[in-house]
Amino acid sequence: MEPQSQLLKINKNEYLAQQKSKLEDALEMGLTKDEYNLICKKIDKIPNMTELGIFSAMFSEHCSYKSSKKWLKTLPTKAAHVIQGPGENAGVIDIGENLAAVFKIESHNHPSFIEPYQGSATGVGGILRDVFTMGARPIALMNALRFGAPNQPLTKHLVSGVVKGIGGYGNCIGIPTVGGETNFDKSYDGNILVNAMAVGLAKKDKIFYSAATGAGNSVIYVGAKTGRDGIHGATMASAEFTENSAEKRPTVQVGDPFTGKLLLEACLELMNTDAVLSIQDMGAAGLTSSSVEMASKGSLGMNLNLDLVPIREDKMSSYEIMLSESQERMLMILKPGSEEKAKLIFDKWDLDFAIIGKVTNTGRLILTKDGFEACNLPLKPLVEDAPEYNKPYEIKTNTKVLKPSEFKTNLTIMDILIKIFKNPNIASKKWIWEQYDSSVMGDTIFANGDSDASIVKIHGTEKKESYGKGLAITTDCTPRYVKSNPIIGGMQAVCEAARNIASSGAKPLAITNNLNFGNPDKKNVMGEIVGSLKGISEAASFLSTPIVSGNVSLYNETNGKSILPTPVIGMVGAIDEVENSLEISAKLDNVLIVLGQSHNFETGWIGCSIYQEIINKKYDGAPPPINLEDEKKVIEILLKLNEQKLLTAAHDISDGGLLTAVCEMLFKYSLGLDINLPSTLINCDSYAPLLQSWCFGEDQARIIIATKDINKVQLILKENDVDFFVLGQTNSSNNLILKDIATISINEIRDINEKTIPSMMGD
Amino acid sequence: MRSGVVIFPGSNCDRDMIVALKQVTGKTPIKIWHKENDFPNLDLIVVPGGFTFGDYLRCGALAARSPVISSIKNHISRGGTVLGVCNGFQILIEAKILPGSLIRNKKLLFTCRETTLEVQNCMKNPFLSGFKIGECLKIPVAHNEGNYFAPKELLKQLKEEGRIALKYSKQKNSEKNYNPNGSSDDIAGILSNNGKVLGMMPHPERAINYLHGGTDGLKLLTNCIQQIIG
Fold first, then answer.
1. What is the ipTM of this complex?
2. Using the beta-carbon criterion (under 8 Å), do A442 and B51 form an inter-chain contact?
3. What is the pTM of this model?
């Protein structure tokens, strides 16, 4: 058929009038005029409301990645251990012993701001479904949260609601929430970030994919019924916020972790048989994206009878059914003849099971409702013709190097430490973590800051001589570095994640990323996206930690004010013998050594540091530079030392610098340390800027290790030509002493560390 | 030694309990689906933790109406031993197998952390008979509704009958938040009038490995099995 031939059959004026009236609908659904005209051309007709709704969802930033796709394609995604990279429900990596780790991170930023409990709960539910859709049993949850300024009135309400929501879903479904990060900055005042990550475990040869197979096979709907909640959620998630955003509450989905648990068990039980050919969860854009993706990935078509979809509310239109984001639903293609067997399993778990259509080979999505055709669209334009924008960008980098000599302060080392641990960004998040069930499933070794990465034992890998393998998981990003220099910030997020995994004793393996940015139509925001992806790519390639899954969240802006660029890195690593994993806490009579810090290191990097914020009340200057060779070197040497069982603890140096990290290592066992100083700093007083920069500078590629065997460790470090600096031996004094300069009570600092968040939350 | 673990829709500590019991007895316990009331005689039935029926309505209220409850009651009347942990404790209370009630934690927040439990001077029972009075066990809790509440008369009665088995206890005199949920008299676990049923909020099945959570839960379960085998 010639393009436009059908259009010519109707009177030109009538056509223009129709097209114009539909254009208004299209604009309201978030499409641009150009996109709308493209749609009309590609499908050779004026779309009806259902068809337009389906297009607007598929063309939304959330589903199509239209602004970021060009740059996402440049990420390194391959390695020998990658089984499935981006493009499926979750990424899959080989972890040996015929096992695979399946994981992904996803944002639920906009819904969580509007309705913190339901927004964050469904964020957790959604990411869990992404993982068990692949045939994996979820074994751990993580999160990365960003809130507005601690003193902002809404912050307390949002923290309280989001934490309750994350716990509400994870605790109920019985998957441990083992860690994450929570930070505060005024740029998130009107636009918080809630990124949830799930990690699951599957047999390597039992991974399930979403591509539909076999024309004529039944399409099955399972799980909860469809209601009117979350209609057009994907479109909302792709728009900027204004004061009127609270009006969007009806587009926030409602979570039901109990049904989620039933769906998890029923799906895994069914996947244990040979009945499932392909499966896809109904996440963003619900039945629309799941049916379109399954059919298009299989290069097939799909006919669905919407009268057969289990619905929760009366008189739902085809538009509402297709765009509802009701939770806890799945779409499956079953092997012919296994429908009865499958139904029995879903009956046992009291879940809906409905055959709603057939796979076809027409390449079209055809929907009927009340006996009429409600939609008839070619699939190709829905998926392949989604626009890919090459938006203009400008990568702004701050190159000003701040020198300690430019700093003057009347604060002592102790004053600064107190201010650091009174900062909610550094202080213990125990108040938050205790609201998450971190020990259900019985496999959690280290959670919630016990170690730099959370460690979960892999059930069933126990051996006679070992408790078995473990997975290490972390989420990291330092947005102030990214803001100052997107490329370095992107690299730093990857490097810190890798350092954290290594500090727990595990080998870094792969990444899932959650790219949270403002409005990509602004040159500088687009520059943040492009720059940080460049940095992430470079570091991920160098450290052999490919990106296997991820999520992009743009338009994180309120009334034109953008968030700090926040490309969160979720990293997974593995350790062969879980009893070798390392906590951050040093033990008595351990020697602490800084890996990656030379003996003549005396000028710490203060640009963009927490220390600088304390002194200057702002962040400024270039962020600490990244040297990938150095990063790789400290990671490799740490793993080597740990393999020889020479280490008792490890902790990477990040926010707050060296002295902050040392304090954190001494807290748990109330230890003390007489700290060695470089000879040039011995005669300083407590106010000396150079000494303070040594204590609090945020130079990268450094990890503090603790050992009982200093001689052996020193020998190995020298043999491998690794820079190191011996800090001293822990003692039972409970005082951190800088000789003749400062005596710091570890218990006092620890109390401050633990009271900061509770007092902020009014507890 | 034959043991069984009851599974309701929404149970989520069933696997953990099965792992723990297998570690102690060497045998895998049978799984009892909540709609079953026809299973072999067992030495020990465990009602594990979780969010049965989503904790909708009231924790344990819907599970307490499942067919399996009458079989559990029969098992008890035959002198059988039952352990209810967390949501399992809530179910036993809702089924009126144990007295009192479990209400929202005092701070109205879910709490997951280690607690120190002190073995009380209580009646003869298979769970704690191998322990000294005053002995302390470190076992984690993870719950939203673990605040044990009972009228004064009932508390007095439980005390007199020696049915208060475990209390949350301070490690140091200065410790303020040793009771994680605000329960009356710091009660963490109580016994039935024959001493054969123990309901407790802390999770012994999460303290069976020195790598995480310690091994005091293992001690409790091992003791229980030994007492039952005699």
1. 0.96
2. no
3. 0.95
